[in-house]
Amino acid sequence: MGKNTKEAIIAASISLFNTNGFHGTSVRDIASKAKVNPANIAYYFNNKHGLLEYCLTIFFERYVAEIEEGYERIEQGATICLKTIARNILFFQYENIHLTRMILREITIDSQVVREIMSTYLMKERFYLNRVFERGMQTKEFRHVTPDYMTLQLKGLLNMPFLNSHYMSEVLHVHPNERYFAEKYLKEVDRWIDGVLCRNEYEPAYLAVN
Amino acid sequence: MGKNTKEAIIAASISLFNTNGFHGTSVRDIASKAKVNPANIAYYFNNKHGLLEYCLTIFFERYVAEIEEGYERIEQGATICLKTIARNILFFQYENIHLTRMILREITIDSQVVREIMSTYLMKERFYLNRVFERGMQTKEFRHVTPDYMTLQLKGLLNMPFLNSHYMSEVLHVHPNERYFAEKYLKEVDRWIDGVLCRNEYEPAYLAVN
Amino acid sequence: MGKNTKEAIIAASISLFNTNGFHGTSVRDIASKAKVNPANIAYYFNNKHGLLEYCLTIFFERYVAEIEEGYERIEQGATICLKTIARNILFFQYENIHLTRMILREITIDSQVVREIMSTYLMKERFYLNRVFERGMQTKEFRHVTPDYMTLQLKGLLNMPFLNSHYMSEVLHVHPNERYFAEKYLKEVDRWIDGVLCRNEYEPAYLAVN
Amino acid sequence: MGKNTKEAIIAASISLFNTNGFHGTSVRDIASKAKVNPANIAYYFNNKHGLLEYCLTIFFERYVAEIEEGYERIEQGATICLKTIARNILFFQYENIHLTRMILREITIDSQVVREIMSTYLMKERFYLNRVFERGMQTKEFRHVTPDYMTLQLKGLLNMPFLNSHYMSEVLHVHPNERYFAEKYLKEVDRWIDGVLCRNEYEPAYLAVN
DNA sequence: CATGAATGAGGGTTCATTCAT
DNA sequence: GATGAATGAACCCTCATTCAT
């Protein structure tokens, strides 16, 4: 039953890290929720931190894959490419909402290990996005911008809905775990690309992504 | 010397909560950094959580004050008003970068107390922003938008730079603790207001805020 | 207001020691209940233990006085004398029910200081009771008994009702803080003296004590 | 080695609770005396209070069993039955002198949990004793008495020797931990039953219990 | 592959007490 | 007489982890 035990631990840890944070969650909590013996965590992940690293890795592995998948459209134009990347990220995060929130929060902690893992992947992210921005500027699709500042804004837009889920639902009455939200919010991000990034006259015929 | 002790505890806790998170910081760490006796934390704030609540309160008290101060410009037009609010928030957060980062992270945890404090202030924030968005739509300054979605985007833009300071500096080579950054980033936010929110033809004569 | 402060501390401490025990009561609890500053306890009684010693002393001072007052009737006969002593103790304890319970419990703890204070007074108690028992045996009022065993039994009878007040009220439905109880229980003790101690034929004409 | 650890903790706690009281004993004291790690107390008994509850339970479980065992003699007559019960209690307490003293003291504290545990068992005790008293009155063995008052006296007599062990030895020079004492004191209790409770002419042929 | 017993370190908090004012 | 600030020690408890089975 090794597979089940390991999977159960991962699922429980994502849920609990998401709710209480890494430091706010004990290995006993995780083991209890996963209905396994606490010693199994050491067995499969060395220690509690190894479990976090595992979660970080599977998240970023797939996160970067989503970006790479979108980047393949670069030849179709920077705008379409960027919109595809944004769409991929948004839906990936929407489909893994708990893991996403947990990761986005944990990487704000100044931990040596977290920083190292994160850097590798986020350097890749930066690399692809920069390439897109530069391509867009080169083809005159985009206005002249500072790529890193654009990355910053784009990430701000894409992460915001997943960081504060109870703020979203209780204050804004917006529910990020509903498909409807993801669809609608994607349009907002597209509008940001069109309105802030693209140089063409405003309100162009919307560029379909699919 | 009560004032000094209390202030020292607050300063130390902001610094440590910022670096290691609330749960990752022990009261002994705080007391040690503040060079006071650990029992003083219980003396002044009842317990560790009371210290967090105190930080939350002073942050949001001033945060909402910044919004209210900007809102007073509502009669000068929604665009100017919103830009002033954005400016106020951005510089307030820039000037309290550690406290801001700590708060932005901590409020993502599902804590009862945090949620209560947060709701009070964030409801006010939503109230004022909604009024501005509605005013702008009424005066035809703004396009037709869903206010809560705009709030979401604006907050995403304004919070992003303060959430991951080492990602900012190590990956993007952008330094949010420098005045230059705040000035430049403000222009980006203004561009978002102009490009995404305002209905007038793109690239207008930039509206000065001050 | 020195008098009030001191009195308030004593009253509060008797109440709290009675309910929670000496170790289960903090000086802050006492100060809070007495509505005085905790430092006053050190001022008036040196430390927390000094407060307990003070309570012990005032209790036993008066306790022994009650015995001595009863012992003065020795010339009227051992039976009358013993009944008077029993009556005095019973009513003294009934009138100081909280203090009594607290003391009776605290003296079961193996504390050096408590032991010393206690010994002094309880040696006196033993002295007087032994004299009464011996006089009774000498005058043939009492059967031949071992005085210390009689002391033990008498004390068992006299202390029992004050030791477990909530057992008394909740299990036995007997209320030791009512005058009626003290009157009735005194008759029981008299019956013990008559039935166990006295040699005369059973059920004698009851000897009035007053 | 789970058995040994648990047993060692129980033995150490009885000894220390007996000497210093529950509140006067720290878990470190207990662990140190038992030569085990302090965390084992939480492991086996949840917390310090759970350890006390455990002691209370094992004490009263056996205490009530002693009473029930004596009650089986009810058909042989109330006097014999009551004497058997008294004998059983006395020897049970004599054989568990430290546990007994600890329990007798702790139940005088107004603790919610203690009260609940206690009530259950002491209600049973009252039930059986009342049945004996009523039977005795019915068969004219006993005089007309108030059962609860008799219970009170009997418990006073049976508990007294175990409550203040150092008073006993240092003041009265009586040693309750010696077999001789228990034998002799039992005769005193029998005399109380004969002299106070039984209606037959005084000084009957002593009823052997065994 | 999984478990329950056991550990040592550290957690937050409360304690009695001191002392300048 | 009385206070509030401050302390250091100790409190109970939980922690992540280890290890024999």
UniProtKB/TrEMBL annotation, chains A, B, C, D:
UniProt domain HTH tetR-type: residue ranges: 3-63
Pfam family, one: TetR_N
Keywords: DNA-binding, Repressor
Matches recorded under SUPFAM superfamilies: Homeodomain-like, Tetracyclin repressor-like, C-terminal domain
Residues within the DNA-binding region(s): 26-45
Record protein name field: AcrR family transcriptional regulator
Species this chain originates from: Cytobacillus eiseniae
Species classification: Bacteria, Bacillati, Bacillota, Bacilli, Bacillales
